[in-house]
Design a protein that fits this description.
5 helices, Split_barrel_FMN-bd, single chain, Pyridox_Oxase_N, Pyridoxamine 5'-phosphate oxidase, alpha+beta
Length: 196
């Protein structure tokens, strides 16, 4: 029923790119640390960069657990479920890295996301994941769910922020600069999205 893949291509790539939501899972090295599981899903915020590398946009929010865990140990799993069509679950286990706004690679990586207005969402980083294990499972118990549209709330909330006000917002949040477990999170002050 389950299969291991050497690369993200063909039908597997098509399946991943067609899903409207995916999940990320990370954890600190400490055995008593907080495991983090996050849904991701704004249309246009995910890209397959090559057969072993994917990336997604990390937007403003009230914490930075994924960023903190990746900075500490790099371990991440991404998961997609088929909520329509034939049942399927795909997981990419790998090593992730947050590429921050002041990283020289940031502008080139950003070109992989032409379909989304990053200014409207408070873009913090681009998470790049290199696959180490790619596998699928049956997904027989995953329910059918219908996608209607992306929620407009995130853009409504963050499109009114500029770099300075977004930095102030992050400074007010308890778990942005450090994680729940005290690991370094998003580096602050927030660098500008675009250099002048």
């Amino acid at each position: 029923m389950g299969k291991v893949y050497e690369r993200i291509d063909g039908r597997l790539r098509t399946f991943i790119e067609e899903q409207k939501i995916f999940f990320t899972a990370t954890a600190p090295l400490a055995g008593d640390g907080t495991v983090n599981l996050s849904p991701k899903g704004l249309t246009g915020s995910f890209a397959v960069l090559d057969e072993l590398t994917v990336a997604y946009l990390d937007f403003a929010g009230s914490n930075a657990e994924t960023v903190a865990h990746l900075r500490e140990n790099g371990r991440i799993t991404l998961m997609w479920c088929a909520f329509t069509g034939p049942p399927n679950i795909v997981r990419v286990h790998g090593r992730g890295e947050p590429v921050f706004r002041d990283d020289p690679r940031f502008p080139e990586l950003l070109e992989h996301f032409p379909g989304i207005d990053v200014d409207a969402h408070g873009l913090r980083a681009i998470i790049v994941v290199t696959a180490e294990l790619i596998r699928d499972t049956c997904g027989y118990a995953v329910p059918y769910l219908d996608y209607r549209e992306d929620r407009p709330l995130h853009a409504r909330r963050f499109q009114r922020e500029d770099d300075e006000s977004l930095d102030r917002y992050f400074h007010k949040k308890e778990h942005i600069a450090s994680s729940i477990d005290g690991l370094p999170g998003l580096p602050l002050p927030l660098p500008p999205l675009r250099s002048s």
